Amino acid sequence: MSIDPLVDFVTQQPVTTEARQIAADTLLDSLTCAIAATASGDRLVERLVRHGLDQGGTPEAAILTQSLQFPAQNAARINAAAIHALDFDDTTLTSWIGHPSAVLYGALLAVASRELATVGDVLDAWAIGFEVGARLGEAGGQESYQRGWHNTATLGTVAAAAAIARLLGFDADRAQAAIGLAATMSSGLKVAFGSDAKPLQVGQAAANAVLASDLAGQGLRTASDVLFARHGWLEALGVPDGQGLARFTDATADLGQRWDILDAGITFKLWPCCAYTHWAIEAALELRERVNTDQITSVTLHASETARATCRHDRPSNPADARFSLPATAAVALVEGWPSPQHFVGEQLPAGVRELIVRCNYAPAPDALPDWGGELTIEHRDGTILHSVVETPRGHQRRPLSAADMRAKFDAATAPLRASGRPAPEWDILYELIRTPDRRVDELLAAPLTGY
Amino acid sequence: MSIDPLVDFVTQQPVTTEARQIAADTLLDSLTCAIAATASGDRLVERLVRHGLDQGGTPEAAILTQSLQFPAQNAARINAAAIHALDFDDTTLTSWIGHPSAVLYGALLAVASRELATVGDVLDAWAIGFEVGARLGEAGGQESYQRGWHNTATLGTVAAAAAIARLLGFDADRAQAAIGLAATMSSGLKVAFGSDAKPLQVGQAAANAVLASDLAGQGLRTASDVLFARHGWLEALGVPDGQGLARFTDATADLGQRWDILDAGITFKLWPCCAYTHWAIEAALELRERVNTDQITSVTLHASETARATCRHDRPSNPADARFSLPATAAVALVEGWPSPQHFVGEQLPAGVRELIVRCNYAPAPDALPDWGGELTIEHRDGTILHSVVETPRGHQRRPLSAADMRAKFDAATAPLRASGRPAPEWDILYELIRTPDRRVDELLAAPLTGY
């Protein structure tokens, strides 16, 4: 066994029209998320931009959020952090168990800007990178995630390096080196969820993918079995000792014949917080009309173990941690209604939300529900009890959003710009650019800049 | 329990004179190793310098190996890779199970150059960073190393961020953020040993430590329990589920009362290859006068499991992999004599070495020997059998080199410069600078530059 099937896939596999179509949807949603982060005044992106300006360097790659250019590695860090800053970006709770587009587009847009590549090149490279991450996730994603690694960043570094190798037209030797070097740089921890470190480590994944592929292009090399060797990347991340090779072999056996993105789809988010909270939000929104929040004695969240381990902020002390809190997201939905980016920024949650959070508690989820589903039970002082079960929340890859939902997400993301009289990017222009394969990526990067 | 004892140690603990004295020894040895790498024409450093020039950026930090300045993050990458390029740099096979100075000085010299800090500041920060890495190694270093992580890079990122926090005089809040952000960036795999990726990932550790501390200084924050939370950094790296907190608490309990660097010491290397091969080299050198290499039928390496797992290149295909090969290092010592940097660069091992490697095989080490010891058995065609047992090789922290040994290492490292008529750095000048605490680090960085 060797890494060859993966490298052959990365360097040679034609991308299907269907996969490219989904890639176009993910690109527009990724731009929407970066716009939403900037429009809502997220501080992380602003600080990474300032850091980039302090560093200086060759202005070779335009970034997503401002009319500035940086070395591609630093541009990738800013792009990926911007797409992921609000936890509003696409995700898949199968295979990757993470956010593919933040790291893939974070890296690809930076390199494409430097290389004057086209939108079509980037969409193809995304499809290749998504599939590489999906197969590596099949090989070891469950264990690595449970062990504490943030797959978006760990798998993502390798997947993004593979995507860049495709974009740059690397031969097998350089593609293998890019993938292997990226594996030696991959990091990111779930324990950081809620803090600046979460989008930062996604930014690092994209930046490291650029570094790994650039150094591979310069001739740096590493062992060909980095991914699956005994005590190699897969086993270090949590695959049981000695099983790395078999897992890798199984997961890559039918590359090119089966596309995970076509079989499993991808989740686009309606709400800017952890995907494992979305069932609770949907259930809360459904019950909201019948609830009197002042009279609630308890809110019981029947949640999966995975959801509870991922959303560890039971009593979040700030809005950023609230993104990874089942009680806080349910309380926001019950008290404030539809959760928007503004609910998860600033210093403090609204008083009504904080008061409701302390009345929340947990119970095991019904066995029949998937990890991403749950049941909400609300008890009132007068004895009224309300229930809602959400098996698969809206937006989940098995319950996709409509085109109108995506457009509404974009309109909401750009609303703060329009409300403050700043020119906002236009859906029709972005939509058209993304569906014209031979347009240069730099045209796209120029388009969302209007107004900020 | 909180991270406070560690943060208090980093921000406030006075450094003892004895620890500072050892720090001075490690700094001179680190410079020796970087000089040896450059003088022997190592290609990795040259490529990282080229990458740094491509990136450009604010010329704020001088590097070790050339008269160039880069952003501190990129300077740290080059410095650390240069110190570690030949695997000639100091190491400790207890606590860290890795190379403390490459990552610590790689990062510290870059930041000190930017901040116009003194040699004394850097030596103190090294002592703090060494101890942080030692305690984190006590908490989880065995498991992480066995699992496949390269402690030098993983522990090293966190230790170097702590050292920088000390150098910059961070308060507790910023020091905690620097340490936590560094943990979310830590990576590096043992499977890369032998390839460009090994020194590169040490360079990445130093670069990420600079990035983490710079972003912490700008106000970025992460969870305070990143290191020891359930499924946090220690557990992700291999500490059994749920034991991270107890391990951290135990390992940091007597910080400031006990100094690992004083109790356990540090290993300075005589030979530029993995420390687990040094027993085999010493044994081979001891037997060499009595051996006729043409007549050898077998060389049996009685080695520990740890040594075999770390040195996985049984039949190395190139000189770089030979650094992590028990057969190759023993064969170099038997055929060529004293192993020098020149033996581990270039495209191919000498024919005589290659012929002897295929006659090498393994046997279990005697139970009484430590991981770093072993027994060599050489059989000749005429039936002559030679044995040599090395329990603890020369240079090991329990069998320290003399001052004359260190001077001889420096002279050998600079010999290629003198041989080619280039001016070489002078021991006396470096020695004096390192022992004058109020001299600026930039004076030291200027000193080794003479001639290349």
How would you sum up this structure, described in words?
- Two copies of one chain form a homodimer.
- Chain A has about 450 residues and is an alpha+beta fold.
- Chain A folds into two domains: about 260 residues, 2-methylcitrate dehydratase PrpD (Orthogonal Bundle), CATH 1.10.4100; about 120 residues, 2-methylcitrate dehydratase PrpD (60s Ribosomal Protein L30, Chain: A, 2-Layer Sandwich), CATH 3.30.1330.120.
- Chain A is about 55% helix and about 5% strand.
- Chain A has 20 helices and six strands.
- The first copy, chain A, has a four-stranded mixed beta sheet.
- Chain A starts with a helix and ends in a 6-residue tail after the last helix.
- Chains A and B meet through helix 3, helix 8, helix 9 and helix 10 of A and helix 3, helix 8, helix 9 and helix 10 of B.
CATH architecture of the largest domain in chain A: Orthogonal Bundle
Terminus-to-terminus distance of chain A: 51 Å
Give the CATH superfamily of the largest domain in chain A: 2-methylcitrate dehydratase PrpD
The secondary-structure element order of chain A is: HHHEEHHHHHHHHHHEHHHHEEEHHH
